[in-house]
Write a structure and sequence with these properties.
Layout lengths: L10 E5 L10 E8 L3 E5 L2 E5 L4 E6 L7 E9 L2 E9 L2
Antiparallel strand pairs: 1-2, 2-5, 3-4, 3-6, 6-7
Length: 87
């Protein structure tokens, strides 16, 4: 009997600013995954694969730290986390 091994999903590239201006209206994030997957962040769904992709996400202004929950899902499973940036 041969078991199929499903690839786990993880980020090959994940670049985002650690600090944002309080007046910022958008944040640009560059992501890539080891397998084709769907990144869900801030109410949007984005297809990602091995090629780095720049995403521009609309955010609200404010002084509180920005916290965006995300999930990266593929046939191999789901990876969840939170992107946090100081303001």
């Amino acid at each position: 009997m041969v078991d199929r091994v499903r690839p786990c999903d993880w980020f090959l590239v994940a670049r985002a600013p650690k600090r944002l201006a309080p007046s910022a209206r958008r944040v640009r994030i560059v992501v890539a995954s080891n397998v084709p997957a769907v990144l869900t962040i801030a109410g949007g769904r984005y297809a990602v694969d091995r090629t780095p992709r720049a995403l521009t996400i609309a955010i609200r202004r404010g002084r509180a730290p920005l916290r965006l929950a995300y999930s990266l899902s593929s046939h191999g499973g789901v990876t969840r986390g939170t992107y946090i940036a100081r303001r």
